[in-house]
């Protein structure tokens, strides 16, 4: 796992952000959850502990984490953004049946970036790679 919750919280404090119990809970949930939850998923998971928390609160905090560079927003086909607390270089495999996203690491494709720069003259800032398939759970259900 790329970031520990403690490390993430210290980074936030350094940027002058107040660590509320809600923020702590949202961040912990994101770091511990490997399935790239949506804001609704996070809200539903934390609502029992924070009855006064709204989906808007979750969204606003996620936006703040994204601006702090600690969380990545993944926008894929199903219109609901998913959030990923792992901002290290990694790629995603997406299930076409249930929409689940899993991380996998691979030596970064920097040579692809260089090639793109050579061919286009662009200054490449980064890339994202997605692979599509059917996850093991959905495969079992199909048999």
Automatic annotation (TrEMBL):
- Source taxon at top rank: Bacteria
**InterPro entries linked:** FUR (IPR002481), Fur_C (IPR043135), WH-like_DNA-bd_sf (IPR036388), WH_DNA-bd_sf (IPR036390)
Free-text cofactor note:
Binds 1 zinc ion per subunit. Binds 1 Mn(2+) or Fe(2+) ion per subunit.
**GO MF terms held by the record:** DNA-binding transcription factor activity; transcription cis-regulatory region binding; zinc ion binding
Q: Where in the cell is it found?
A: Cytoplasm
The residues that hold Fe cation are: 127
Keywords from UniProt, A to Z, are: Cytoplasm, DNA-binding, Iron, Manganese, Metal-binding, Repressor, Transcription, Transcription regulation, Zinc
Q: Which cofactor does it need?
A: Zn(2+); Mn(2+); Fe(2+)
Q: Which PANTHER family match?
A: PEROXIDE-RESPONSIVE REPRESSOR PERR, ZINC UPTAKE REGULATION PROTEIN
> Could you identify this protein by its name?
Peroxide operon regulator
Query: What species is this protein from?
Result: Paenibacillus algicola
